[in-house]
Each structure stands twice: as C-alpha cells, then as structure tokens.
Write a structure and sequence with these properties.
It holds the Pfam family DHHA2. This is inorganic diphosphatase. The chain is of the alpha/beta class and 305 residues long. Helix 2 links the parallel strand 2 and strand 3.
Length: 305
Amino acid sequence: MSTYIFGHTNPDSDSIVGAISLSYLKNQLGEECVPTRQGEISPETEFILNKFGGTLPELKTSVAGEKVYIVDFSDKAQAPKDIMEATILGIVDHHKLGDLTTDTPLECWIRPIGCTNTVIKEMYDYHGVEIPKDIAGMMLCAILSDTVIFKSPTCTKTDTKVCKELAKIAEIEDYKALGMEMFIVKSAVVGATARELNTRDYKEFDMGGSRLGIGQLEVVDLSVFDNLKYDLFKDMKKLKDESGLQSVLILLTDIMKEGSQLLVVSDDESKVESAFECKLENSEVWLDGVLSRKKQVIPFLQRQF
C-alpha cells in the first residue's frame, strides 16, 4: 500500500517539488511513496516541471485511511478536510509549527530556513542518497522561488549553500539568471481571472478564533496590476464572504523594488493598521521591504488577532 506525500492547498512550487523530491528519497529508502497535490499548479510550477522534465503529481484531496507525509505546512486549515482520519508518518517544513496533532510518533524535520526543499536536501545528505539531475534542478528552482532569489529575510546561509550544491548537480552555471527567468513567468497575469490570481499562492490561518486568508503574488513589476486591482478587490470580498473569513489580505510583491502593496478586505481594518503600524488608504498600503509572508506578515497579524 502506497504512502502519499503532499503539500498545502493552493500548492506553490515548494509544495509540489517537495512532494516529488521527498517521494524519490523515501522510495530509495525502501518506502513506497507517491507524490500528490491538493490543487492546481501555478505557471511558475509548470515552468519548473517543463524545464526539468518533471511529472505533475496526481491530484488527491481525500486521505482518510491513508498513510501520509506532509511537506511545507502543518496547519489543519491547509490540509485535506479528512486529514485527522489519516496516519501522518512525518512532517517536513520550514514554517511555524501548526495545529496538526498525531496519535503516534512521527518523523519531523522542521527548520527555520528559507525553503522546505532545503530541508529535504539535508535529508538526502543525512541518508547518503544521491539526488538525480532533474530533481536537483527542480529543488533549486523551489528554493530560488521561496527565497526570492536570496532577497527574502527568510533566506539563510544554508539555503544559499544548498543552492550552489544543487546547481552543480543540475549542471546549471548561472542559477540567478534561471531564477529571474522563473520570476518573469511567475509575473504573468494575462488571461488569469481575479480568483486565479488571488488564490495562486493563498493560505488560510486561524488566529485566535479569527480566520484570515492571506495570498501573495510576486512579480518583477507591479504595473502588471494597474488594470486589475478593482477586480482583485471585488473577488477578495467574494472570497471573504464565501469562506466566512474575518479578513482577506493579498500581498502584491515587487521583487525588484523589494516591497509589497498590501490589499485588505476586513471586518476591522484597524487591526491590520495596528499590525503594520500603517494607515490604509482605499484599503491598501505599500509595505517597504516586506517580501516574506511567513516572517514579515503572519507574526504581526497573529499578535493582533
């Protein structure tokens, strides 16, 4: 019987590649594992899979009665609805510890670094398993994505060291150029609906009984949103009502200017203003230097809610 490996809902590149890279490792160690996903992939992830010949993990949204490993999250809100009916064998992550609990002991690799695939690379090293060239390339891209090509405050020396090692395995000389090529793809918004954009990299959180939805779109030029903001706000309101959320926040992150335009739809904007010590104008504000949802957004909101 296979064990399934998957990342969070609305999977980003780290979640998809993490499922692939961890599955390969586990199979080499004698565990029959299958990489899966909870949702549709982004243009960036599609670029990575095409670039290195990766296979799209199968879609699986129900895990009752299954054995699973989870990557890139540990919050119930980001898991399949029946996650508590599954046996969680392990968690590999780089976020805060969430609210998932288990009935039995589990393998747990959680590190305060920039990307889950950096942790998985350390697991390969620990077990002495060689990483195939194609998987190394995908892991490299996942780390470049999560660390915003090393600009994110979440990036550590371990992430940069691992990137150099993966680039060598994947035979990629200029991996920063690869990162920019990937972010140009990530910046593509033509043809995407407001809902597709708002949920492209979107997570829900329970903060002191208040449920918040927080999304992030990373681009090389914020002007791509000039004619889209009205539609984004309109859909944010729908998303908030449909999911019964207290707030929906979307970060429009400019990786070149190194900051984010924060869009807010909330029952209480003052809490958001207090969290970031700012004043919202027409429900938005520029947050200079803010690139990381995990480190520069979530902790500040949690203190308010």
